[in-house]
Design a protein that fits this description.
By secondary structure, the protein is of the alpha+beta class. It is built from 6 helices and 7 strands; from the N terminus they run αββαααβββαβαβ. Helix 2 crosses helix 3 (68-75).
Length: 173
């Protein structure tokens, strides 16, 4: 329990540095939108060799300094679950976006959409919604009853995209 609390406190501190945090929850994972990317994009799960593309996307969406070795630091534990919940959008062999599922810190029935990142050149093409839907469907198929996403108020595109998919929103200082 203390470990969970420390992870939550760490997340809150990081989000506070980025602005007020916005917590969103989808309370029902049964009726989900289709996880279908618009042409020419397709969605797929992780494949060996995606580490460099993942690091590049993370640098675009979640800050600088991500490298391929960070991939295994992040996904090395609970590998089967985490890699199964890691999705990519691509077009013509170019990785354009990624999203990841995680286990919730607050309870066994709550999953987490850890992040949704789309490369700048591919933003505005409708990729975030199907990437999010793929993660939500994965969480449902793994037995989760609901899902949470935390982001910063400084990420209005994330809030706008996720707002359509959630049933409860809470803003905290």
């Amino acid at each position: 329990m203390l470990t969970r609390l420390l992870r939550i406190v760490d997340l809150v501190d990081r989000l506070r540095d980025a602005g007020r945090e916005v917590w969103m929850q989808r309370t029902d994972l049964q009726q989900l939108p289709a996880a279908i990317a618009p042409p020419p994009y397709t969605l797929r799960q992780y494949r060996a060799g995606d580490e460099e593309a993942w690091a590049g996307l993370m640098n675009h969406g979640l800050g600088h300094g991500w490298r391929a070795h960070h991939f295994w630091e992040r996904f090395g534990r609970d590998r089967e679950f985490l890699l199964g919940g890691l999705f990519f959008a691509e077009a013509r062999g170019t990785v354009a976006g990624t999203a990841s599922a995680g286990r919730g810190d607050c309870g066994g029935s709550v999953g987490v959409v850890q992040y949704v990142v789309v490369a700048p050149a591919h933003r505005g093409h409708g990729l975030a919604a199907p990437l999010s839907a793929a993660v939500l469907a994965y969480l449902r198929d793994q037995g989760f009853e609901s899902a949470m996403l935390a982001t910063s108020e400084r990420r209005p595109a994330a809030i706008k995209t996720c707002y359509r998919e959630v049933t409860r929103i809470e803003t905290r200082l």
